[in-house]
Specification:
This protein is of the alpha+beta class and 265 residues long. The chain contains nine helices and eleven strands.
Length: 265
């Protein structure tokens, strides 16, 4: 069990301040089974939250903002048999819901499906740090460290997804830039802006250790179709440990690359 006073954990007051959520809402999420604090002291009731907890809270609030009730949020995460009902509601909402509609479609993807899709990589401002990692496990730790640092700025974006950028063409080397979307007003040394650009992507379903195969498939498609890349490979983390726990077979990562212009896919 993690230590209660571990500096990587957040007290409930910190969570309410950073994410703008009430203590009551956090307790409701917990009672509905949507959120489990990393540490809960049974003697005094104190709760401590991890970076994964913070990501899950942001995800819940984003779905609520898009018009889903908490009951529907629970169905979104845990009810794989009745997805049509949620899709019908999402299609009636405004354009802000497009990403969630896409997510519902992506979740139906099978393991090993390397279909290439057109996408638009959004303009965003990010808190970024670069690392060389020995393996995927260390990369996950560095991404979480970056998330914690970004959260403590109080400027973290509630809408966009965190991602990593491959800083070399050699897929055997884990030179990564970890990127956490933040508000436009963030002006720290870690600030980096990304322009909106067309892109191609594969929605990879499975453990992070297998993302390299999806990257190879995407780059093979680009090469075979004489498409001009306009940047490096990105891994956008759509669903992972915060909402899938240890069930890595259901992790969903968008493997994307910016391109100069759309060609026939």
């Amino acid at each position: 069990m993690m230590k209660k006073h571990d500096n990587s954990l957040f007290q409930i007051g910190e969570v309410t301040k950073i994410l703008g959520v009430t203590r009551k809402a956090l307790l409701v999420y917990e009672n509905m089974g949507l959120l489990t604090p990393a540490v809960k002291d049974e003697t005094n009731g104190f709760r401590y939250y991890s970076a994964d907890n913070m990501t899950q809270i942001r995800s819940i609030r984003s779905l609520q903002a898009l018009g889903l009730s908490l009951k529907e949020v629970a169905e979104y995460y845990y009810d794989t048999e009745n997805m049509d009902k949620l899709l019908d509601k999402l299609y009636e909402l405004r354009k802000m819901l497009d990403r969630n509609i896409q997510m519902l479609q992506v979740r139906s993807a099978k393991q090993g499906d390397f279909t290439v899709h057109k996408t638009v990589l959004p303009r965003q401002v990010c808190f970024c740090r670069e690392y060389r990692c020995k393996d995927v496990a260390e990369a996950a730790i560095k991404l979480r460290d970056t998330y914690i640092a970004a959260a403590r700025t109080g400027k973290m974006s509630m809408a966009a997804r965190m991602f990593t950028v491959r800083m070399t063409d050699d897929l055997g080397i884990l030179d990564l830039m970890c990127c956490i979307p933040v508000d436009e007003s963030f002006d720290g040394a870690e600030r980096m802006e990304f322009a909106e650009t067309p892109g191609l992507c594969i929605y990879y379903r499975g453990p992070y250790e297998g993302t390299g195969e999806a990257m190879k498939a995407l780059m093979k498609h680009i090469s075979e179709n004489s498409i001009e890349a306009a940047g490096r490979l990105l891994s956008v983390y759509l669903e992972g440990p915060p909402n899938r726990g240890d069930n890595s077979a259901d992790y969903i990562t968008q493997i994307a690359v910016p391109i100069k212009k759309f060609e026939k896919v």
